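To assess whether the prediction recovers the assembly geometry, we first specified each molecular entity separately, as shown.
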Amino acid sequence: MNITTYIQHDFVNPADLAGKQTVVIDTFRATTTMTTALQNGASRMVTVMHVQDAFDLQKADPTRLLGGERNTQKIAGFDFGNSPLEYTRDAVQGREVIMSTTNGTKAVAAAAQSENIVLGCFHNLSAVANYLAKQGKDIVLLCAGTVGKLSMEDFLTAGAIVDALPDNCALCDASIAARDMYRLHKNNLNGVLQHTKHYNTMLQNGLQHDIDFCMQVNTGTVVPIFDGIGFISDKRGE
Amino acid sequence: MNITTYIQHDFVNPADLAGKQTVVIDTFRATTTMTTALQNGASRMVTVMHVQDAFDLQKADPTRLLGGERNTQKIAGFDFGNSPLEYTRDAVQGREVIMSTTNGTKAVAAAAQSENIVLGCFHNLSAVANYLAKQGKDIVLLCAGTVGKLSMEDFLTAGAIVDALPDNCALCDASIAARDMYRLHKNNLNGVLQHTKHYNTMLQNGLQHDIDFCMQVNTGTVVPIFDGIGFISDKRGE
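The predicted structure of the complete assembly is given in tokenized form:
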């Protein structure tokens, strides 16, 4: 298996992802949030680009819940922001959630031509790696990044997935760099993240609890997998 | 000083580089070659995008020499390919050389709005770092990359420059990752490079001697600096 890592979704030529399995990574916070919601029983997480699309889908089916953010803030009229801590079992079990997030949604759209799309974060590292290895197709690790730039938390998540995959995979240079950065810092990820931009933006917005939650490793076995409409829970990573 | 690292020139919004000092890095081989030619007495290295532009400039002044490559091969009718070993003192002293290279030239074009542009490679690491520190402006490390992807040798060169700059610089996430990769591998750069794509493409093309030459560290003090037409030798890095 080849493993290709993109540090930011704007750098992707969508046609290059055809026939591959793509992992979208937006660790702070979209993919952590969606993985958490599915772990807590949400029936499906649907990503949309525009806020109005979310309202339209809720109008068509009022049982749908709306979640998402713009510049780390909850969108007016939505049920949830983008904090994974909001998506409790009481709040989401059995419900479909429409998500509009700045970066994560764009990353999912960039992966549209992939054979399958899954969501990765620290919470489901091992499950995602197991799923990918079982599928056996070439792998794309698609980091959302932050405002067109490499974002360390996504890069480290990608590196952790590379590290968890078999040693005989063929790695692009970015995959090697991500893996080595993860191995260098895995015993103290906060030590490197505390010097990075997105982490500090979140701290300034009072999101320390979200950071702590997003940094939890292997809390579950759910692999969010795209079913053509949104992401549903898949247990093939077990 | 802020240090921003771009892993590939296609990812640059040229307007973001206005007012900054940009280091273009194409270690295998364009910036190593141009730095070497200036160290060996070339009067100026002019980069052009198209082969015909090079021939036109030579027609206007037949003392000009032509250098460059397409897909690692010398261009027909040119005086030199892109091997730094060709640009000896005997061959280039006092001469202006017109260079057309696949990636390096595009990277220089992407940096056009910068306050100043210099060329970086392993040969002039310390000189470039000294030059940047003296100028005191925000720094952009612009890696050429290979075919739209992160290329490890450029990333490590960028990391080495970050490592050589004062500790109080503010680093973007990519700058942190590049620096950490350099520090992790600095005692055995070949150990990580031998697993990378561009390195192996060069080996397959019989360019082991070029690789060995490009990996030499701090062989001189020339900082190639853009004078509006091309790159001339600057000794302000001493």
